[in-house]
Design brief:
Blueprint (H helix, E strand, L loop, with lengths): L1 H6 L2 H10 L2 H24 L4 H21 L3 H13 L6 H23 L1 H4 L8 H35 L6 H34 L7 H22 L2
Helix pairs in contact: 3-4, 3-10, 5-6, 6-8, 8-9, 9-10
Length: 234
């Protein structure tokens, strides 16, 4: 009876729906990958033995390779999203251009990142892999910048809309609550983008950040993404 109660519990069904999605598995692996990056840095700073650090370094590398394969084909999804945004007639011009830039940046990143898989996995090393990986990081950085700009602009728009609403009317109160939910979602996405910006900007040498900061920032953005997929599969 206890086993049946556990197997047929709604949470188990929710978990199965979550892991059935590629995005769900990717976000879970990404959270573990970046936490391992942070924890490996922490162990190094506390003078831990190399044998204690090695497993987390391995997780960081192997999970990163696994995620490259999980994302195969996702670049096409972003190209389609960019085309849809470009053809949109009702979207705000600023948000439209940001959406196109974000989606094309992500598409280029995923394409170039996948192109380095054979080298990263040691299957077929080639000289241009480092250059391709650097270009991939640049494309990701561009996509994230467009996303952050869109988030900042959206928050400004929401503030402008809220100031024009009559809070004394019933409909106005409902509209305020809707805007508050939208603002919260936008703020969370902006925090995720800012955290993610540390990864390519550090890899490209534009800012000097240690693995602890990058790992922790990546963990936060990964958890936000994981929580988002979890809510969608509820």
């Amino acid at each position: 009876m206890v086993a049946d109660a556990l197997i047929y519990h709604p949470s188990v069904a929710h978990y199965l729906r979550y892991v059935a999605t590629t995005a769900g598995r990717d976000k879970l692996l990404r959270t573990i990958q970046y936490f391992s990056r942070f924890y490996a840095w922490y162990l190094l700073r506390t003078n831990a033995l190399p044998s204690s650090i090695a497993p987390f370094e391995a997780i960081k590398k192997q999970f990163g390779l696994s995620r490259k394969l999980l994302r195969v084909g996702k670049n096409i999804e972003h190209v389609k999203a960019a085309a849809s945004a470009a053809n949109s007639k009702n979207m705000d011009p600023v948000l439209k251009y940001c959406a196109v830039g974000r989606q094309l940046g992500y598409a280029a990143y995923l394409t170039l990142d996948l192109a380095t898989y054979l080298d990263a996995a040691g299957i077929r090393p080639f000289e241009s892999a480092k250059r391709l990986q650097r270009e991939a990081q640049k494309a990701w950085l561009v996509g994230l910048i467009f996303s952050a700009v869109a988030g900042t602009y959206s928050l400004w728009q929401l503030q402008e809309k809220e100031q024009r609403i009559d809070r004394k009317e019933g409909e106005g109160v409902l509209e305020i609550k809707r805007l508050e939910r939208e603002r919260t979602a936008t703020q969370i996405q902006l925090v995720s983008d800012i955290c993610d910006l540390t990864i390519p900007s550090s890899a490209l040498g534009y800012v000097t950040l240690d693995d602890g900061i990058v790992g922790l920032a990546g963990t936060v953005s990964s958890f936000i993404g994981m929580w988002g997929v979890w809510k969608k599969t509820a």
